[in-house]
Design goal:
Layout (H helix, E strand, L loop, with lengths): L3 H7 L5 E13 L3 E7 L7 E6 L5 H7 L7 E10 L7 E12 L15 H5 L9 H23 L3 E2 L5 E2 L11 E2 L4 H6 L15 E3 L4 H11 L1 E9 L12 E10 L3 H22 L1 H11 L3 H9 L4 E4 H10 L16 H11 L4 E7 L15 E9 L3 E8 L4 H10 L8 H8 L5 E7 H4 L1
Parallel strand pairs: 3-5, 6-10, 12-13
Antiparallel strand pairs: 1-2, 1-4, 2-3, 4-5, 7-9, 8-9, 10-11, 11-16, 13-14, 14-15, 15-16
């Protein structure tokens, strides 16, 4: 059995087919009944037309039970459609109701629903146009990620989800334990993590980067793509407790190489979305975010601008009255700062480099000035930061000092330091949050 996307693409008129899916709508006319059928394979539904004069009583009775959301199988002959906007339709002769959907209690009807309402019925919202389109885009973009890296000789590796190492050094991690912490607290005892499953405190990973570096130092060019977790108390639309992260790492690379890879990666992903996902992108353009197609097309066809953090702050300080958060050297750039740089100053994407060392993680390579590190953030219009990366600190002594400056115990990272003891080499990488990309 072919899905509706294939049926509409092949347009094999004159053939008898059976299409299965869920009824979006049923419309009764004087001499015919129209059922729009969707199976999730495409935004477009298949129009199924039942001729009133040719429909037997059993089929007519079944048709009366077809409501929005019902699962059905419809058999008929594929014919050219006289209606505008649809190349073919199904001249239906048979109908099987697989699963009824009571109209009086089904919360999704043929009308617009707010995203807040859909959050309350997360188990049903994939059936809506918006969430269905987002799911198809997620699938396509995951494929695009793997295609990009495999075409460039990167190996896909899997890194641990449960870890004892805090990659970012911020301590905002979800704990994993088999101990009954409530019972221990009631007894007034001190928690002994030596009795825990791993014999020490364990957390959900905030990043696969430290582990992916172990493979980088063996395979040269690698990437990981998997779930990460952040226990940040950030009630914004940009911060999630659980999300997927794409993290490439490649050996014998410095910051300029990292910047070039990040730019190529973003342009590849945007090109994939625009060239292969036209139907869903057109829906987003019309119903969700007008102007999105033009913006993405502009980004993919624009050379990314480069500026240092110091230069960026100097520009922002000249216009500080425009911001809620006043910029100064040493501040963490806010979304409003990032959008100003991309939308007002550059009018396009920009890569900001060489951030103050105090703002960045311990593993970023220290510059000669001792104040900044070889870090980069890729900023794009409307969103702000979408990629963060750096050249890694591959000098053993400097890395140890960085750890101490961040109040990290080098003994906890002995294996990471081993990478700097045995055959250390320059390397670089970055992280792209998959949900933020979407």
């Amino acid at each position: 059995m072919k899905d509706i996307r294939t049926i509409l693409r092949e347009r094999a008129t004159g053939t008898t087919i059976t299409a299965k899916g869920w009824a979006r709508t049923r419309r009764d006319a004087k001499n015919a009944t129209f059922v729009e059928l969707s199976d999730g394979s495409t935004m477009t539904g298949l129009q199924c037309v039942f001729d009133g004069a040719a429909t037997d009583s059993a089929t007519a009775a079944a048709l009366a039970r077809v409501t929005t959301g019902a699962a059905v199988a419809i058999t008929g002959t594929l014919v050219d459609s006289p209606a505008a906007g649809q190349p073919v339709e199904l001249k239906a002769t048979g109908l099987e109701i697989i699963g009824e959907c009571p109209a009086d209690s089904y919360p999704l009807q043929k009308k617009a629903h707010s995203l807040e309402f859909l959050r309350e019925i997360a188990h049903l919202r994939p059936r809506t146009n918006t969430i269905g389109a987002a799911a198809r885009m997620r699938d396509e973009m995951a494929y695009a990620v793997h295609t990009f890296f495999h075409d460039r000789g990167f190996r896909y590796v899997h890194t641990p989800i449960i870890t004892a190492s805090d990659c970012e050094g911020a301590g905002e991690m979800f704990q994993v334990t088999t101990l009954d912490l409530d019972a221990i607290a009631k007894r007034g005892e001190t928690v002994d993590y030596g009795r825990d499953f791993f014999g020490k405190k364990a957390m959900l990973s905030v990043s696969g980067q430290l582990n992916v570096e172990t493979y980088c130092m063996a395979l040269g060019k690698v990437y990981t793509f998997g779930p990460t977790f952040r226990a940040e108390n950030s009630n914004t639309t940009r911060h999630l407790a659980e999300f997927w992260m794409i993290e490439p790492e490649f050996a014998f690379a410095e910051l300029p190489d990292d910047m070039a890879l990040a730019e190529d990666f973003i342009k590849h992903l945007l090109g994939w979305a625009l060239d292969r996902c036209g139907e869903d992108m057109a829906f987003f353009e019309k119903r969700v975010q007008p102007g999105i197609i033009q913006m993405l097309d502009s980004v993919r066809n624009t050379k990314f601008a480069h500026m240092t953090y110091t230069d960026a702050v100097a520009i922002l300080e000249k216009n500080k009255d425009a911001f809620e958060f006043k910029p100064f050297w040493g501040c963490d750039l806010q979304t409003e700062h990032e959008r100003y740089l991309t939308e007002t100053v550059v009018n396009g994407p920009v890569i900001v480099t060489d951030y103050p060392r105090d703002l960045k993680a311990f593993y970023m390579r220290l510059n000669e000035d001792g104040r900044t590190v070889r870090a980069m953030d890729v900023l794009v219009p409307r969103i702000g930061e979408i990629i963060g990366g750096s050249e890694r600190e591959y000098r053993y002594d400097v890395l140890v000092e960085n750890m101490k400056a961040k109040n990290l115990d080098p003994a906890d990272y002995w294996w990471y330091l081993d990478l700097r003891r045995y055959g250390s080499a320059p390397h670089a990488g970055f992280g792209l949050g998959f949900e933020r990309l979407l």
